[in-house]
Amino acid sequence: MGDVLAPWELPITPTLVVSTAIATRDFQDVHHDRDLAQGHGSKDIFLNILTSNGLVERYVTDRLGHDIDVLGIAIRLGAPAHPYDTLTFTGTVASVEDGVATIDVRGAVSLGDHVTGTVRVRA
Amino acid sequence: MSLHDQVMAEAARIQGLGETAGREARDPVNQPTINNWLEAMGNTNPRFAAGSGRGEAPPSMAQVWTMYGLGGKPPADDPLHGMMNVLTDAGYTAVLGTNCEQEYVRYLRVGEQVRVTTALDSVVGPKQTAMGEGYFVTSRSTWYVGSEVVATMLFRVLKYKPRSVVEERAPASVSKPETFVLRPMQNRDTEFFWDGTAAGELRIQSCNACGALRFPPGPACPDCGALDRGHVVASGRGTVFSYVVHRHPPVPGRDLPILIAVVDLEEGVRMVGELVNVEPDDIKIGMPVTVDFRRIDDDLTLPVWRTS
Ligand SMILES: [Zn+2]
């Protein structure tokens, strides 16, 4: 408990945004078409929520072990993650109870927190 | 009936429908789709790789299997989309995902056919938010293999009237909406800080084990790892460590430039905040500044900085 997970810095590229959107079968234009994204008032395309979830899973399992079972991911969404920004994940073990560890995770971009939340894993 | 009453009546009706009948995934859980996902995420977890012999799918892919796909349309009886349409018709045209809580009962396996149901959980509003006035719409999705629940998701969106729309439609005599403000995250780690600003105190988190001060707030002490934390009240005096002059892009409701400084507090931590009484040419590194508080509304008071 209180253990800190080593941070992970992920450069956001157009390729990352587009390839993860398509790999999560999310074809909303704001995740692959910059002109349309800007037409909707966004600065650029941005990561979709299924990808934020997938990256949180990757961060926690890369740090705590690939065989660890993820029981749940609860995230609150904040600032958009646009290309040419960096998404920096940090995490802390918040509690370990009845064989379940709760990890507080934060993914920050230059605009602020892109994602904050908790991941529950079988300890 | 007011617009709000109509929205809430529709919400009650759709909530009453409960779970939808269920929608089948286009394809069974399959390795090529897993492979594409792993590549895109840069996820090298060997547990999910082809040839691992385990045949498991990554848990956070649960929702992927039942995405509509390109050109796919939600069925007419889908509760979430039904509620979205009600709000769109009421003028709340924009949407923003705010919360996503997924539970994985077990990992899916290659070859399994997944089905999803959705129910409308709650509709709360109207709320004044940084994005504009809106309703928080929460839906609950459940994924099944046969009759077995394999995953659940609580998903919340803010369905809102974008501010520019509000301003365009407002009669000239109506006062301008509150100044646009990017709302900071407020959670149990930062609550003490915002309670402090509301009370006119600039609070710095402290470690009750080793006494170290830290900013931004967080659950654990970066020096000793202890979770037991308190706070001290800062003197409110500091110096400009660094700054930026924000000239572009435009910020709705604000005149540019905006001056943002990193302030070295007397207590030894640094905070970022707006400098409110200085012209860009007059800012100097090392300049003494004092905290002040700008009340935005009942929920938010921001610390700002003035030259001493
Ligand atoms: Zn400490």
Automatic annotation (TrEMBL), chain A:
Query: Gene3D superfamilies, alphabetically?
Result: Hotdog Thioesterase
InterPro entries on file? HotDog_dom_sf (IPR029069)
The protein, known as:
MaoC like domain-containing protein
TrEMBL record, chain B:
Task: List each copy of the ChsH2 rubredoxin-like zinc ribbon domain by range.
Answer: 194-226
Q: Which Gene3D superfamilies match?
A: 6.10.30.10, Hotdog Thioesterase
Q: Which residues form the FAS1-like dehydratase domain?
A: 24-152
Provide the ChsH2 C-terminal OB-fold domain boundaries: 232-294
Q: Name one Pfam family in it.
A: OB_ChsH2_C
Protein name according to UniProt: DNA-binding protein
